[in-house]
Amino acid sequence: MPAPLGRVVEMLSTLPGVGPKTAMRLGLNLLSRPASETVALADALKLLHEQVGFCDICGCFAEKGLCQQCDDPAREGDTVCIVEQPVDVLMMERGHNYRGHYHVLHGRLSPVDGVGPEELNLAALDRRVEAGIKELILATSATVDGEATAHYIARRYRDAGVRISRIARGVPEGGELEYLDEHTLSRALDQRISWDNGSI
Amino acid sequence: MPAPLGRVVEMLSTLPGVGPKTAMRLGLNLLSRPASETVALADALKLLHEQVGFCDICGCFAEKGLCQQCDDPAREGDTVCIVEQPVDVLMMERGHNYRGHYHVLHGRLSPVDGVGPEELNLAALDRRVEAGIKELILATSATVDGEATAHYIARRYRDAGVRISRIARGVPEGGELEYLDEHTLSRALDQRISWDNGSI
């Protein structure tokens, strides 16, 4: 294999879900398509880190100092949804029903990996809470570590005079009971809500 | 999503086997790893088309004028294995038992897609056959189009005083009869070879 192709294949194989065979197929595809397309991809990759950074306020992806959400005066600044990663903000925004701000932790508590509160983006959250926030929505993941992180944050701000909530857990949309795990089903039963005609 | 990330994701999703979701995962990974790694991939991609071209003789990948095989005086120049794509040469070379040269067609006959003999790298092969070759090994794929291409080339050079052969077809290594299609099995039976103790 020519060395320049080998280098591309080797680097592509470090991407998540891309093994040596897939990397080879991608490398050959990039070599066989018009040179201009491959150069365009290279240019876009070069600009990625140059142009995309993190929001000064919430830690989400931002092209300038502030992200789209923090820069939007129409959004409710006194409601802050706490997520683990910048990508989680993109997922939340797909729903179109949240109009508040975000705060990205850039991780979750994980004693095994040596991630404690100091490793998370919490000092900035302290300042936001002090400056005045009505509600903190805990939207960390529904994993053991995500749950521990939610508990930690709820305790950290319990006397800060802020309402704290956790996103609901239960049967996902389209979920069939037959294929759900027992923990999800058991929690969905525990946290059942009254059938109020018209509201659900 | 920040526009620079959107551009990378859009371009990645044009790669084979990469859908919008995978492209998103790859794009986010490239954004979250150290900038130097993403820039290194961009640099390697820029050099790909600049440094890798096709061999002047056989049409395989080559960094300079000639590919590794055509540039190797130890290989048998009077045996030429005909393949469809440059990647097929890489696959053949994995076997380590072929010591001849190659000729890459850069395609195969496909009337449906408007690919006729003029679209294939055959004029160069004519010149190689005229200059003197002992054997042409047809290693086009075992598909309808690959088979048609092999037939066409065999007819094209039938009076050129060159031995023409086709790579064997049959049960692949490790193949269990239970899972083989009937065409492969039927051909393996038709083309059975005598059990000569010691030779097989």
Radius of gyration based on Cα positions of chain A? 22 Å
From the spread of the alpha carbons, the general shape of chain A counts as: globular
SSE sequence of chain A, one letter per element: HHHEEEHEHEHEH
Overall average residue pLDDT of chain A = 90
- Category by helix and strand content of chain A: alpha/beta
Largest sheet of chain A, if any?
A: 4 strands, parallel
Please tally the helical runs of chain A, counting DSSP H or I stretches of 4 or more residues: 7
Helix content percent band of chain A: 40-55%
Zinc finger (C4-type) (chains A, B): 55-70
GO molecular function (chains A, B): DNA binding; zinc ion binding
InterPro entries (chains A, B): DNA_Rcmb_RecR (IPR000093), Rcmb_RecR (IPR023627), TOPRIM_dom (IPR006171), TOPRIM_RecR (IPR034137)
Keywords (chains A, B): DNA damage, DNA recombination, DNA repair, Metal-binding, Zinc, Zinc-finger
Description:
Chains A, B: This is Recombination protein RecR. Chains A, B: Keywords: DNA damage, DNA recombination, DNA repair, Metal-binding, Zinc, Zinc-finger. Two copies of one chain form a homodimer. The first copy, chain A, has 200 residues and is α/β, with parallel strands linked by helices. The first copy, chain A, has two domains: 49 residues, Orthogonal Bundle (Helicase, Ruva Protein, domain 3), CATH 1.10.8.420; 106 residues, Dna Topoisomerase Vi A Subunit, Chain: A, domain 2 (3-Layer(aba) Sandwich), CATH 3.40.1360. Helices cover 40% and strands 12% of the residues of chain A. Chain A contains seven helices and six strands; from the N terminus they run αααβββαβαβαβα. In chain A, helix 1 crosses helix 2. The longest helix of chain A is centred in the N-terminal third of the chain and has 17 residues. Chain A is globular, with a radius of gyration of 22 Å. The model of chain A has no long low-confidence stretch (mean pLDDT 90). At the A-B interface, helix 1, helix 2, helix 3, strand 2 and helix 4 of A face helix 1, helix 2, helix 3, strand 2 and helix 4 of B.
